[in-house]
Design goal:
The longest helix has 21 residues. The chain contains 2 helices and 29 strands. The chain is mostly beta strands. Helices cover 8% and strands 42% of the residues. The chain has 3 domains: 114 residues, Immunoglobulins (Immunoglobulin-like, Sandwich); 81 residues; 127 residues, no CATH class. The termini are far apart. The N terminus is likely disordered. The strands form 6 sheets. Strands 12, 13, 17, 18, 19, 24, 25, 26 and 27 form a 9-stranded antiparallel beta sheet that branches.
Length: 379
């Protein structure tokens, strides 16, 4: 009987121990502390935003000491000067999916954040920032808040949906209905390949009819109600970013057919208008020990800064990688183009159909608004 009571007592004690363990075992430990200090940018720092793709601002704060195992993740938060971060205007994870104690934000991102905080384009105002650390379902705001003063980019509060090039110096002349449409490459961002006359006015609109808004460019910025000119007649790649107010002009000197087996250009595709480059030429495949080699792509020669820069060589290659010859039923996406800065002999190439070996064909590149950038080879 005594042994039974001892065993029963031990069993009960074991059950109590297991129950106590079950109260905590397997549960995540959410204990953490607040970020003690914000390091960069310092409180009161002034930032003038620039419309350059490379322009950015580095944010950093102290790591927290998590009391028991694991690591915390971080979100940087922005708010208006009188806000308390209970409803921030913007939040974003830090680098490395939230595990780093720092993050780099582009001037374009900060321009958007400043607008959400109530600062108008080209104006200067203040924004507060802080950091939230979290572990599991628990989040904690940093002990401090820093204020930065931001001068916004000259963007537009009302961004156009469509943009066109028109005016005396444009391809369509002064007939608004013939204005050339720009390609929307992102929200508020547009580009076009078009020919402009030297010293002849042109401008941009948001419609081909009625009384549309008018835009022009000056000193690398997009402005409203005016016209522009270029000093050199030629084909230009124009980009307009209505979010930041930035514009760029690149003079296109020419596009050539690059024959990979020869490692050289065989011929140029002259500009025909409306974003189309075209040539009728004959390409003879190169005989190799394993067969006929027909691989090709295109090279484009440009001068940036409205033609004032040095000559640069770019590459139009495959958007969708392929290593097969097309057929008459091949999908149109086979021919889609992608602009590349890394020049190679064999990468990002297409193959010609066997029917074009030594046969005259029409080679056409389409850099137009209402279709993917693409090309065709036809008889």
């Amino acid at each position: 009987m005594k042994n039974i009571l001892i065993k029963t007592g031990c069993l009960a004690a074991l059950v109590l121990i297991l129950m106590a363990c079950n109260d905590t075992m397997g549960d995540p430990d959410y204990r953490l502390t607040e970020v003690k200090a914000l390091i960069e940018p310092a409180n009161g720092k002034t930032i003038k935003l620039e419309p350059l793709p490379s322009a950015s601002v580095y944010f950093e704060w102290e790591y927290i000491e998590v009391e028991k195992g694991g690591t915390a993740v971080y979100q940087i938060a922005f708010d208006k000067p009188d806000g308390d971060f209970s409803d921030p205007v913007y939040m974003v994870n830090s680098g490395n999916n939230g595990f780093n104690n720092h993050v780099t934000l582009s001037h374009k991102q900060l321009n958007k954040i400043a607008g959400m905080a109530g600062i108008f384009p080209s104006e200067t105002g203040s924004v507060k920032w802080t950091v939230f650390s979290s572990k599991g379902t628990k989040a904690m705001k940093a002990a401090s808040e820093n204020t930065i003063t931001i001068t916004r980019l000259a963007g537009f509060e009302e961004v156009p949906i469509d943009v066109y090039v028109t005016g005396e110096g444009s391809e369509g002349g002064t007939d608004l209905s013939k204005a050339q449409k720009m390609k929307a490459v992102a929200g508020g961002e547009f580009e076009v390949y078009t020919k402009l006359k030297a010293n002849s006015p042109y401008y941009f609109t948001d419609s081909r009819s009625g009384t549309p808004r008018k835009f022009y460019t000056a000193d690398g910025l997009v402005k409203e109600n005016g016209s522009s000119t270029v000093p050199i007649e030629g084909v230009y790649r124009i980009t307009l970013d209505f979010n930041t107010g930035a514009s760029t002009y690149t003079l296109v000197l020419g596009i050539g057919f690059y024959f990979s087996p020869a490692g050289s250009l065989l011929f140029e595709l002259p500009y025909k208008g409306n974003g189309i480059f075209q040539a009728k030429e004959t390409v003879t495949f190169k005989q190799e020990g394993w067969g006929r080699d027909e691989r090709y792509k295109f090279r484009m020669f440009v001068k940036e800064n409205s033609g004032a820069g040095e000559v640069k060589e770019l590459e139009w290659g495959t958007l969708n990688q392929t290593d097969s010859r097309p057929t008459p039923t091949t999908a149109e996406s086979y021919y889609y183009l992608k602009l590349l800065t890394n020049l190679t002999q064999w990468d990002n190439k297409w193959k010609l159909m066997g029917d074009f070996d030594g046969v005259p064909a029409v080679y056409t590149i389409y850099l137009q608004a209402d279709k993917p950038y693409t090309h065709s080879v036809t008889k």
